[in-house]
Amino acid sequence: TQLLEQSPQFLSIQEGENLTVYCNSSSVFSSLQWYRQEPGEGPVLLVTVVTGGEVKKLKRLTFQFGDARKDSSLHITAAQPGDTGLYLCAGPGSSNTGKLIFGQGTTLQVKP
Amino acid sequence: SQTIHQWPATLVQPVGSPLSLECTVEGTSNPNLYWYRQAAGRGLQLLFYSVGIGQISSEVPQNLSASRPQDRQFILSSKKLLLSDSGFYLCAWRRLAITGELFFGEGSRLTVL
Known about the structure:
heterodimer; A: 112 residues; six-stranded mixed sheet; B: 113 residues; mainly beta; four-stranded antiparallel sheet; 58% strand; globular
């Protein structure tokens, strides 16, 4: 069974601090996605990483896919209150049904 | 561009009452559609998915059912709601690519009293 484990589950920091969220698995994934969800809304896709070792940047957010394609990380530089939300990683399941496997999420709270 | 909408946004229902949540997609044809349920602040549990009209796959045995009467319409239903059906329900469509990103609706908050 493919599983994605995220850590930490909850993170509360002050504005301006840096943070890293991890998404780990014992299985190889062909790609991994990161979503951000604000309270009362649906998740929104941030990025997809496809190649082992790949690094993608989205303003202050840096996403990395592990060399073995079993893990990914999200690093936020100089966090802002607008970064507050639930961050979810997800990857395609091994079947051909198009189902995504989601991690349990990391709740980030950035205090002004 | 593709858009996805679901309604109602908020619903408060008594135990034993029926449920109907509707989801529609615009700007794409024959999409793969999904219903998820989310506990407060946590990950997503896949409930149903559909690859075409009338084709429904259920992921977990439960008090809910799904239907796809039209290509871009996906409905989540229950004949008799339970307290445990409370939650945040999300509809999504999948981009037809190997990476298979999902695009979600706004969500429906269901409270069963």
